[in-house]
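Hey, can you fold this one?
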Amino acid sequence: MLEWRSCCFPDRNETDPAIAATNRVFAQFLKYATAGAGGTAVAYGILFALVEMAAVRPVLASTCGAVAGAVVNYALNYRFTFQSRRPHRQALAKYFTVAVAGIALNAIVIALAMTVPGMHYFLAQLFATAVVLIAAFLTNRAWTF
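Sure. Predicted structure:
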């Protein structure tokens, strides 16, 4: 019985270096997203609390949440996702450079999304999270760790 891979891609198998490399990157992305869930939970909690309980504007509240989430994510990504051996003084500086860029990108995406009539701040935040997740993973993978 043929497996779908051999049927659809007869000249490629799991021992193919390109497939193996793609699988490693995908597995690392899943680790990154899993680790990021902790920081995202913190960020979303702060966003919700500031908007709903303190009447803070969504862009500012989201930015505060993103800063707190970045702190949580550094430790998780350093050890869990990338298993970095770089000294913290190097990795931390690069990570927070990426985090600041991600926070700015997050604010820009939310601000743009909030210009859409009827856009709820939480839906805007979900979209911004997806954009920043992909951009930050690629940058952290290539440069930070």
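Helices lie at 4-8, 17-54, 58-81, 88-113, 121-144. Let me know if you want another pass with a different chain boundary.
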